[in-house]
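Q: Sequence in, structure out?
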Amino acid sequence: MADAKEKPVDKLTFEEALAELEIIVRQLEAGEVELEKSIAIYERGAALKAHCESRLKSAELKVEQIVQGANGPTTESANFD
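A: Exactly. Output:
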């Protein structure tokens, strides 16, 4: 995981970040990596999670703007739950 060809987290698309995060979770759950490497990939996983959350929040805000633009001002937000 932590090698020279890794893209910086902020350059990943949502889909790329999520796919990499899923791989990290599987590796950690399976106990496939040594302690030092597991710490490094856990750290990258935390950064990937934050990146995904940020991208999702941005998408939610865009959808709310689109909904408001199409329907005029609204007092309720789009429900994503």
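The chain has a mean pLDDT of 89.
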